[in-house]
Amino acid sequence: MDKILLAILQKKLESIAEEMATSLRLTALSPNIKERADFSTAIFSAEGELLAQADAIPVHLGSMSASVIEGLKSFRGTFSPGDVIIHNSPFRGGTHLPDITAITPVFVDDTNHPQFFVANRAHHADVGGMVPGSLPGTSTEVFQEGMIIPPIKLFSKGKLSEDLLALLLENYRTPQERRGDFMAQVGANRKGVKRMQELAREYGTNTILKAQEILLKMTENATRTFLVSLPDGEYEFTDYLDSDGISSDPIPIKATVHIKGDSAIVDFDGSAPQVKGNANAPLAVTKSAVYYVFRCLTGEHVPANSGGFRPIEIRASEGSVVNPVWPAAVSSGNTETSQRIVDVVFGALAKATDIVPAASQGTMNNVLVGGKDPKTHQLFSYYETIGGGTGATKSRNGEDAIHSHMTNTWNTPIEALETAYPIKVTAYRIRKNSGGKGVNKGGDGIIREYEFLTSVTISLQTERRIFAPWGLFGGENGKQGRNILIRKSGSIEELPGRITITAEPGDRLRIETPGGGGYGRREMKKEKNI
Amino acid sequence: MGNLIVGVDTGGTFTDFVIYYPEKHNIQVFKIPSTPHNPVNAVIEGFDLIKEKTQTKLLIHGTTVGTNAVLQRRGPRVILLTTKGFEDIIEIGRQNRPRLYALEVSRLKPLVPRDNRIGVNERIDANGHPIVELTNNEIQRIEQILVDFSPETIAVSFLFSFKNDAHEKMIAESLKKRLDVPVSISCEVLPEFREFERTSTTVTDAFLKPIMSTYLADLERNLVNHGFNGNLSIFKSDAGISSSRIGTSRPVELLLSGLAGGLKGASFSAKLTGRVNLISLDIGGTSTDVGVLHNGCESIRKRSEISGIVISTPVVDVETIGAGGGSLAFLKDGFFKVGPESAGSDPGPACYGKGNIIPTVTDADVVTGRLHPENFAGGRVKIYPELAEKSIQPLAETLGLSLEETAEGIQRVYRNNITAAMKRASIERGHDPRNFSLLAFGGQGPIHAAELGESLGVKEVIIPPFPGAWSAMGLVASDYRYEQSLSLLTTFEKSTFPQLVERTKHLQKRLLRSLENDHISLDAIRFEWYLELRYLGQGYEIRISWDKDENQQIIESRFKDAHKTKYGYTLNTPIEIVNIVVVGVQSGVNPQLRIEAMTSDLQGPPSAEAEIFYHGDWITAEITTKQALRPKSKFQGPVIVFQEDTTIFIPPSWKAILDITGHLFLRRVD
Predict the structure, then answer these.
(1) Is A460 part of a structural domain of the chain?
(2) Which of B80, B334, B580, B642 keeps 20 to 30 A from A374, CA to CA?
(3) Hey, where are the domains in chain B?
């Protein structure tokens, strides 16, 4: 097959994934899907290999394929046109419960087995459990985080299973919105099926299957080319999560990257056993974080598909914090632990290549504030994440005050926040000199300070308050983050990274987010200048 | 003074001129190479070429002076005054990063560096109450600091100034007395919520003020010296024109006018052809702009980004991608790519012979016979077909294809990229291409128009009379527009319909006052009212038109219809009134066209036939020229139509017909 046709088919597959994404974004109801774009759409081979994906949330990159393969396992041989399988189990390819994946088989040429699958994953605003939003700070079992859906057929041969849907909706706080989001997911897949069938008619199914094989192989080869450029060897790195919020023990995460020729093994042996709190990262999250690192290193011009996963073997023992078993709590595995996994894999690779960046802030700084609005007497709940510094690299300083690695959501304007909630922002600025020093300096974090105008409950899920973002090659560490509660009386309380605490009117919460690590020993800079 | 209308559109490579003769319903177009070091030179050079130049009643100018200053970060030192504690808002932005999988995270720097941002001790709360008063002592302290800075231009942006502008105005008044520099204040530039976007827009305005006032003064002086005694108007990013004074007093409104000309040209075509649903496709040397005209209206977006700088003044909603005649074709890690990297106009495609040896789309067009040396840019640019072949040869060898097959492959990948962009611009915004016609223009648009239309699935393809200058035509076809907005962030529960009318009337007065301050004539001005609404809790707004004789129910149902079109559903949530908007409109030139009156000095083609490589074979196409075609004459492809500013390719199985306004309609023969 010539490379011109390949380039065209590659772009067409991407366009179909994009069109599915548009359809989902336009028809979904959750602000998470519509505004923060917390969803992904993709096309898969008959075996569940990722073929093309709309530019998405990094944490979905590898984990979608895992979910699709689980769906295939459950229903192999029983697929019909019009089926829609949904599931969200973190122990079967899912990430955390609000992320629900919908999978639809694509039948072309009147065959009796599907040649492709289309799928999408969307973050639902609430899936039940102990708190609204289904992201509890203090969960110790997955059941507290919402309703688990094993792979089920929500639609069979195009017909909705009303019973199943009724069962699900009964367990959610906002059933109408959920129903709308489910239908949006189904609609996006329908669009994908239609476009895939048109593509097969236009170019021939065999042509597309052939292209699929070559494209997977090309991405695989590009990844292998990168791996060959690394010296063979075993590279180890250990870093820590500050705590799981239940005990105060640090949680080690260790990666050993074995580079041998054109392949790599990433082994998490030596990482902590699964923890009681919700810092456990399901295997799919762990895989996504690893694939994210290699995708960054291989280059953005290489199409993202399962071919890139082939040269990389991931070993994470069952029952560990990077591959927990049922019924572990997992809600911050997706948001916080995923960032640390990225850090340790980059850290290990830094021993093999100098293109790796120093550690970025390594947290999303999840802040949740709830209470009763004195003006409207309504309950409110406000959630946001805060950016920080990114790690410096060989060629440039880290960036200040920005989201890094596994997330990329936007902030809420102060003028929107203060208009909608009884909260006043008293400072919002770059945390100067929080980036690690070095030949190239780590990016600075952010200072965000809130004053509460009513009694509130604050929940924090933040990391890097104890273990600092590391510098590389003699570059200094970035400063750890800090959470400070300044009481109206003037007394100051230094809060831990994960806590739920109440505050009174006039109290102020100050979050200082971590800086990025520096790169290169600073004296060298002076020498260079001379 | 006569009645000649002149449109001058400065682009990166050429400065385009459109001369409109109202009595003859005729236009003339020509191009002058741009003079980037001093864009005035090209304008004057072209102006001098107009025989009846002293008869010019109105000269409408689209400029990229501001755009280039922002792109190059070359301009005056801006000092920014912000609420104390919030000096970094402009740098933090929305804390998202532009590329997800980049190893090196990087954002472009804001127009005002940290040391030039000064916190002022003041604070207004969400209700508009000053919770920290701005004192005279504080103003004096700030002025003292400023004197030491010797600023060239100042921006002021305080939190919640759209709710209460007293503090911003106090300090601005005082500064204007004390210092002789321009001051941009956010409550005047963009009195809307979202502190980052408002601050960034205000800083950009301050940055542009000295640049634009110098440029426009220089331009006007030179024009007058060369015999111009008409009015000078400027073209803005919202596809409206305004008195050149706005270019000095609110320069941020022109920043992206380069995007607007094409879409305005399309809306002119819509008027002439009676097609109200058009997809506008403007393909140039390095980039392609795609816009949608739905029911004859351009859609406006309120947030744009250029080179990392965000502005929230109205800009036409256009999707831009890096695809054009200069797009480079190459292999990287085995993957075949066409663009977005471009050879630009210098060195340009390989066939220019200026040193580029990597093949471009234009080289592929030359090798496949779609572009001819004798009609390249009307014969003004010499090209070397053998260099085009030579550039493609190595690629052909690597791919194991023939020279022609490779060239056609480049064209296919290029069209595939543009089709994806057209789908984003139409389908993503809730439009079904089957209900649209494709208007293809720009120097490169007509070369692949038919095939692009087919791949998008539109019902027909239309080529305007002067594709290469159609953006400049848009300038001449524009109306005057002056816009003023204000954030309310309220609901119908909190403010009643009569209150809304009152506040809008107040805003309208404010707009009138500011126009008077700019000495703008208010003759025959009419006002359009808009509301920018969203469901409470949403993060984006939809603009709805309304007037005082309507009521809440009408507005709500209009919003719901628009929401349904754009997003596919409606909700039962309360509707939030985010912004009220008043637009003052005065009719512009309103040109009419008749093809009999259009002239061209293009000579007939030397050969009557061309060999074209099409779908893997050489076919013979007839060559004709645009002026050889008569209105209502029908003909069938394969045909190549030469015209001064482009080449039109009509493939086999396509027929074409010319209408009396000079638009060529292409349809597939079924």
Answers:
(1) yes
(2) B580
(3) 74-197, 327-414, 480-586
- At A31 the three-state DSSP class reads helix
Can you give the length of chain A in residues?
Answer: 530
- In terms of CATH architecture, what is B74-197? 3-Layer(aba) Sandwich (3.40)
* Structure token pair of residue B581: 């908007």
For residues B449 and B463, the answer to whether their CB atoms sit within 8 Å is: yes
> Hey, how many other C-beta atoms are within 10 angstroms of the C-beta on B3?
15
Provide, as residue numbers in chain A, all residues whose Cβ is less than 8 Å from the Cβ of B161: none
Which of A161, A194, A216 is the last residue in one of the domains?
A: A216
- Hey, are the CB atoms on B420 and A357 less than 8 Å from each other? no
Task: Answer whether residue A530 shows pLDDT above 50.
Answer: no
Percent with pLDDT over 90 in chain B: 71
> Distance (Å) from the C-alpha of residue A221 to the closest C-alpha of chain B?
9
Residue B240: per-residue pLDDT = 94
> Domain residues for A127?
3-216
- Tell if the CB–CB gap between A430 and B104 is shorter than 8 Å: no
- Amino acid type, A84: V
Give residue B600's pLDDT band: very low, low, confident or very high (50, 70, 90). Answer: low
Task: Report the amino acid identity of residue A394.
Answer: K
Interface test with A, best of B105, B109, B432 (most A CBs within 10 A): B105
What CATH architecture applies to the domain B480-586?
A: 2-Layer Sandwich (3.30)
**Do the Cβ atoms of B387 and B356 come closer than 8 Å?**
no
Q: How far is A1 from chain B (nearest CA, A)?
A: 10
Quick check: A403 contacting B, CB < 8 Å? yes
Residues A101 and A65 sit within 8 Å (Cβ to Cβ): no
Are residues B96 and A297, on separate chains, in Cβ contact within 8 Å?
A: no
Are the CB atoms for B578 and B488 separated by under 8 Å?
Answer: yes
Question: If you measure CA to CA, which chain B residue comes closest to A417?
Answer: B126
DSSP state of B525: -
pLDDT value at A424 more than 70 = yes
Q: Are residues A402 and B569, on separate chains, in Cβ contact within 8 Å? A: no
Give the pLDDT confidence of B211-254 residue by residue, as tens digits: 999 999 999 999 999 999 999 999 999 999 998 888 899 999 99
Cβ–Cβ gap B89/A428 under 8 Å: yes
Under an 8 A CB cutoff, do A427 and B85 touch?
yes
Q: Which residue of A lies nearest to B340 if distances are taken between CA atoms? A: A301
Decide if pLDDT at A204 tops 90.
yes
Please check whether residue A455 lies inside any domain of the structure: yes
Residue pair A20/A41 in contact (Cβ under 8 Å)? The answer is: yes
Residues of B in contact with A55 (CB under 8 A): 100
Report the complex ipTM: 0.92
Q: Among A234-238, A367-371, B546-550, which range has the highest average pLDDT?
A: A234-238
- Residue B104 near residue A395, CB atoms below 8 Å: yes
Total domain count for chain A? 2
Q: Is residue A295 part of a domain?
A: no
CA distance A203 to A5: 10
Sign of the CA dihedral with A423 first, then A426, A430, and A435 last: negative
- Nearest CA among B287, B286, B306, B156 for reference residue B237: B306
> Is B537 close to A31, i.e. CB distance below 8 A?
yes
| Neighboring chain B residues of A35 at a CB cutoff of 8 Å | 538-540
Q: Report the residue of chain B nearest A216, measured CA to CA.
A: B335
Sign of CA dihedral B549, B552, B553, B558: positive
Alpha-carbon torsion angle B27, B28, B33, B37, nearest 10: -50
Q: Which amino acid is at B531?
A: L
pLDDT, position B31: 86
Is A497 inside a domain boundary?
A: yes
Query: Residue B631 pLDDT > 90, yes or no?
Result: no
Q: Do A218 and B95 touch (CB under 8 A)?
A: no
* Interchain contact A395–B (C-beta under 8 A): yes
